[in-house]
Amino acid sequence: MLKILPYLSVEEKRLLSKPFRYFIKADSVSDFDKFYTKYSKERLAKKKLYLFLIKLIPLKKLRRSLRKRISESL
Question: Could you give the CA distance from residue 36 to residue 16 in angstroms, rounded to a whole number?
């Protein structure tokens, strides 16, 4: 497999998502699968934590905007 990561500039690397960067440098499919399952679980847990913490904010308008932003980004 051709390694393309060394040929990318720093700005181009930043544009790629974390799972895709790992996919490019992964040695095997099973290695990437393990990473992606762990990544997905951590991301879901992070989203749930943020949504729980938002419940503690007393301002309704701020809560709604934060909830919407988190749902779109994560």
Answer: 15
